[in-house]
Amino acid sequence: MNFSAWSIRNPIAPLLGFFLLMVLGIQSFNSLPITRFPNIDVAVVSISVTQSGASPSELEMQVTKEIEDAVASINGVDEISSKVNDGVSVTSVVFRIEIPTQQAVQDVKDAVDRIRNDLPAGVDEPIVNKVDVEGQAIQTFAVSAPNMTLEELSWFVDDTIKRALQGQKGIGRIDRIGGADREIRIELDPDRLNALGITAADVNKQLRGTNVDIGSGRGQVAGAEQAIRVLGDTRNVPALANTTIAISSDRFVKLADLGRIIDTYTEPKSFALLDNQPVVSFSIFRSKGASDVAVAELVAKSLDEVRAKNPDVGINLISDFVYFTYGNYTAAIDTLLEGAILAVIVVFLFLKNWRATLISAIALPLSAIPTFWILEMMGFSLNLVSFLALTLATGILVDDAIVEIENIARHIKMGKTPYRAAIEAADEIGLAVIATTFTIVAVFVPVSFMGGIPGQYFIQFGLTVAFSVLFSLLVARLITPMMAAYLMRPEDGHDEDEGQEGRFMRRYTRLVSATTRTWQRRYLTLAAALVFLVVSVGLLMQVPTSFMPPEDAGRITLSVELPPNATLNETENRVRQITETLKPLAGVQSVFVQGGTSPSGDLELRRASVTLQLFRIEHSLVKTVVNKLIGGLPLIGPYLPKMTVDGRTIPQWQIEKLVFAKLRDIPDIRVQKMNDRGARDMAFYFLSKNEEDLTEAVSILEAKLRTVPVLANVSADGSLPRPELQIRPKTDEMARLGITAQQVSETLRVATIGDIDAQLPKISLDGRLIPIRVQAALGQRRDLGAIRALKIKSASGSMVPLSTVVDIDYTQGISSIKRNHRDRVVSIGADLPQGVALDTATAAFKQAVAAAKIPASVYLKETGDTKVQKEMLASFVNAMILGLLLVLIVLILLFKDIIQPFTILLSLPLAVGGVAVALIITHNALSMPVLIGILMLMGIVTKNAILLIDFAIEMRRHGMERVEAMVEAGRKRARPIIMTSIAMSAGMLPSALGVGEGGSFRSPMAIAVIGGIIVSTVMSLVVVPSFFLVMDDLSRLLSAIFGRLVGAKEQEREPLDTATLTDLHDQTSAQISTLEARMDGLEAGAAHPPRRLSAGPFGRD
């Protein structure tokens, strides 16, 4: 069925259909979530186990290994990693993508339940949670109030702000940074305790049992039922101080007589500074699948309500990732519009007709907007990748319409009416348009279903392009011919006279004729193309590869680490020094510090996360064109006037270089730069079961890798040894006195840090439960002699010094432990200097590791961007091979020929040279956006070859000699090929200039595509005609060889379609009318014979 003819004859139906699609698309566009990157749906489950006072080594042996062994046998587990710090062990289990999250959580819970009895009795109940937070914090706020104490301000954040935000749609987690929690601290006098024969643990136990409200059953007094409650809670600090504590021999003492009772806050374990000013801050994390922008708008609205109710409290935004996400969104929209306008301008310059230009331009919104409906149904978001797909498809969306309208205009110039021209031109070009569309779909469908993390990115790109070009096919077959039939005029055709084609077309026609006339010239042309291909591949091999292009995100995140024995005060003093050093640097707007934690979430007093917020860069297409494009012209560029640029002009990589130069002067710190994904630019895991071997290997490798010139700031994140007090029981003496190791541990824990948090006594104050922490005075905790003199109760009830039953010594211990795949792991990472690609640094890294002599038990494992890049390249190659096979199948089915589709397929490598040259000139690496661009080039090159070959085949069917048919195809199809290629390149130009947020992500792709389009267009127009004839020779040869083995095909009359039948009917009717007129004339002559005049001898007048 000829859909174009049907649409022309029935215009209402397609118009209504596309009106409905536009409405659905606009609604979906307004409701789609806006994120920075696609949502990566991988099941990640965490198991947290806490035990106050437990060392990392103790937790690793007794808890972490048990949990890792339990979950390792679960089906679908991809990776197991653990972090063990003082008192807490966190194990993360990453599952393969095909495993549903709910199934993963349940499997982990079942595995942990099976080994629960094997864990120490003193640990808290393991907490199993799915990781439902996407990436890093999207926003961070600082809270200040002059009339509040630190504890009151912290409670305001926890109670008021968190309550206003938690549970809102899209908010995954809210973390408070800095501040302190209220507690009642009881600092016991050791001398008083010794005199009374009581320990801190005894006091803690009595308070836990007496200062509590407990439900105690039900009564039925006076015929009614009542609840029975024991009200032991004192409910105020003076009453708590007056609590009676029982001691031995029927003696009692008031709690106030044993030490000081202080209403205070917990000892700080973290802090927050904004430009060296103390603040209490909180960070917002979005849940998986939520929109960054929608969450930010919701947070802003909720915080405005909090500000209105609490005018004395200041809540200021200090870090905002959403700005970059929204900036990318607006920049992508602007780039789409700018590219579309440039493409339409190119169409107008070629066609020189506003009606044809309007009809072509309408194809853009009609193809792009309905695609948003598909995105919503597929559960996608508006992100860098999906917008990249639409940006890249801008030229292609108008491509089919250009081919259609150009062909219609040519038919109008033949003298046909626009109505007839639209029907016949659409029918003539139909196969080529359908073939080009389905080849693009065939390329991108396999890529859409790649495995692993790269597949989560490519699925949104591939399906977005596929559906948008399918919509463009519908527009080209239903809307464009119909509009042309009713809107164009007879004068809208372009001149077909060869003398008016212009100098370029005449020269091109002569060139095609020269390269195709003899078989020697054809093969010479192919040999030149082969040489060009070999050189192109050689150039492409010189292009470095990377996962993501370098990006100017406007923020620099540093992980700062102090020596293992550093206190929180020392950490604060050192980061204050860092802030004073870095804040004056050009381009730095503010410095925000989170103390007591690393950017990756490691909780240690000696760690800090320092975030430098940079001034924003102004993104202006006009200024970019004037200052960079025109100003970069050779010879005259430096002398041309420049436009003033507002905002930051120094690129981020230069500021990073200054930052590390300044930090070298600050002693006793280890600083690592983290990217926006919370990892180093490049990092490798080194694993071993032997801790000593791993430590030795890391020391050797760090020294070796620091000599590699393409690696900067090489450092390991392995834990450093720290001083610790080790208690070694005197087993014989403990047995004689009836004292257990558990008693010793409890006595020391309660005296130094208080009881386990979950077991602390509580008191009701101001409508909330406040923990009561019983511990020795600070002076005793700082004195080793006082610790040795702590009393412990024997089985007989007598008090003996702790030194009687244990030895206490200084020694070295590990501060934290990291594990991966059930082995100890240390990550060695490095920053990549400007201009160094990931694969170059990776090769140098591996080469240095191979040359180093490290223990045999230590092995290397890829992680981070290096691991993802390797997966991406492997998956990409497989998907591309499958895509080429699908393209071949589609072409064979459409052309009903086996040989000529190879002409189209083998023309694909012609774009490689343009890609390589463009990347080398602009110093860009072969990254994920570039690979996406190469995919699109496959479709574009295929389109050019299809337009040429389809026309040549059609001419041969009409009896034209094959060389003449190919020359004619070049002459008639060069114009739409060049027009669409320039339109696509123009549509890419704003992206190539890197304008707007996320421009550094789009720019390499656009540059590669423009370079590939230019070279492939030229090569296609020259090489494909010769290649077509060579393949035709091959087809004849194969027919001669195998023709005897295959019977001759019986010629069958093909069924006529509606349009052909209509034409035949019209022709037959015209012939019948002519015959009837002639018959009428004959009959009239017979009835009135003419009067014969005198004639000559032969009877003539």
From TrEMBL:
InterPro entries: AcrB_DN_DC_subdom (IPR027463), Acrflvin-R (IPR001036)
GO annotations of cellular component type: plasma membrane
Gene Ontology terms for molecular function: xenobiotic transmembrane transporter activity
Pfam families assigned to the protein according to its UniProt record, in alphabetical order: ACR_tran
Domain of life according to the entry: Bacteria
Protein name: AcrB/AcrD/AcrF family protein
Source species taxonomy: Bacteria, Pseudomonadati, Pseudomonadota, Alphaproteobacteria, Hyphomicrobiales
